[in-house]
Specification:
Blueprint: E1 2-5, E2 14-17, E3 28-36, H1 39-45, E4 63-71, E5 83-86, H2 96-99, E6 123-126, E7 132-134, H3 140-143, H4 151-160, E8 169-173, H5 177-189, E9 193-197, H6 201-209, E10 214-216, H7 221-227, E11 231-236, H8 241-250, E12 251-259, E13 279-282, H9 288-299, E14 307-311, H10 315-324, E15 330-334
Parallel strand pairs: 8-9, 8-11, 9-10, 11-12, 12-13, 14-15
Antiparallel strand pairs: 1-2, 3-4, 3-6, 3-15, 4-5, 5-7
Helix pairs in contact: 4-5
The chain binds zinc ion (2 copies).
């Protein structure tokens, strides 16, 4: 099969012919329809996530949709050619986190495209049909980013739902791929006023189209001063020193800061570094059940995906554009 292979850290991907693995007992072979290109793929390519990828060469791709091609012995519950989304947060299946249905938090993670070969290829082997969610009538290609770019902010937004009552404000820092889903989810699931902090003009227009009440630049000191300590919930989808400082500054007393972005920034923490009793937490992926909920929102038209389909051979140009922040929507690689 054709696959985009990472030969070395920081190197361009290479299109190679690699063998298709037959599905073993309980496994399922999925023919990839689309694989979303994600900011975390850049972190993996750069070797910025310690110990990952586990070996080289490596096949990236954790935002995968496709069709059931073949079921291994004993695997069931899905039919041949059925369109599916692949839940990527694979765990060991037996630890306490996995038993609670929080496989993305497994102590022995085996995530698609991160710990196990991913979907920048014509086929992926999925260890169990429990990682599949039926796509129904949703378009498989444009649905690929739902599996992470929408799932991750969905979990983050859910952490803040009880605080986002009428009259409150939610802030989204970063209106790229994840931020555009976060904004829609806040609009759909809460009555909160939504303020977006984003440097790029291109993303300002999209954020306003998607229903943001206000969009401002991170260097708009006057506006930030007015908004100080006003947000019941801040979602930081960037995660550098500057975005975390903004998040801490805007969170209201007793508010919640949810860090999602993996840019590696730090937040100095002392008694008065935030308003009183602000809670700071991370949010990591989502569960298979949360993915089913995201797919239901998309199927009912309450969550839309802006995607560019790119042939797998165009992956390096798409990576260059993603690094430059010059993409209005999510790239979906089509093998
Ligand atoms: Zn992703
Ligand atoms: Zn586990």
């Amino acid at each position: 099969m054709r696959a985009a292979v990472l030969p070395d850290l920081k190197a361009p991907l290479e299109i190679r012919d690699v063998p298709v693995t037959e599905p073993g007992p309980g496994e399922v072979l999925v023919r990839v329809a689309g694989a979303g290109l994600c900011g975390s793929d850049l972190h993996l390519m750069d070797g910025a996530l310690s110990g990952l990828p586990p070996r080289l060469p490596w096949i990236l791709g954790h935002e995968v949709t496709g069709y059931v091609e073949a079921l291994g012995p004993g695997a069931g519950g899905f039919g041949h050619e059925q369109p599916v989304a692949v839940f990527a947060g694979w765990g060991c299946g037996v630890c306490d986190e996995c038993a609670r249905g929080e496989e993305q938090l497994c102590i022995r993670p085996q995530s698609l495209g991160v710990h196990r070969p991913g979907g920048f290829a014509e086929y992926v082997v999925v260890p169990s049909t429990r990682h599949l969610v039926a796509l129904g009538d949703l378009d498989p290609v444009s649905s690929a980013p739902l599996t992470d770019a929408a799932l991750t902010p969905y979990r983050a937004v859910r952490k803040g739902l009880s605080r986002l009552v009428p009259g409150t404000t939610a802030v989204v820092i970063g209106a790229g791929g994840l931020g555009q889903y976060a904004l829609q989810l806040l609009r759909t699931l809460t009555p909160a006023r939504v303020v977006v902090v984003e440097p790029l003009r291109l993303h300002h227009d999209i954020a306003l189209e998607l229903g943001a009440d206000r969009v401002l630049r991170p260097d708009d000191e006057e506006s930030l001063r007015q908004l100080k300590c006003s947000a019941a919930v801040v979602l930081d989808l960037v995660g550098n020193d500057s975005s975390l400082a903004t998040a801490a500054r805007l969170a209201a007393r007793g508010g919640l800061v949810v860090l999602v972005g993996m840019a590696g920034g730090t937040l100095p923490f002392r008694f008065s570094s935030t308003a009183s009793e602000v809670v700071v937490t991370t949010s990591h992926g989502g569960t298979r059940q949360e993915l089913a909920e995201v797919i239901d929102l998309a199927a009912s038209g309450r969550l839309t995906s802006r995607t560019h389909e790119v042939d797998l051979a165009g992956v390096n140009a798409a990576i260059t554009d993603l690094r430059a922040g010059e993409l209005a929507g999510r790239v979906v690689l089509v093998p």
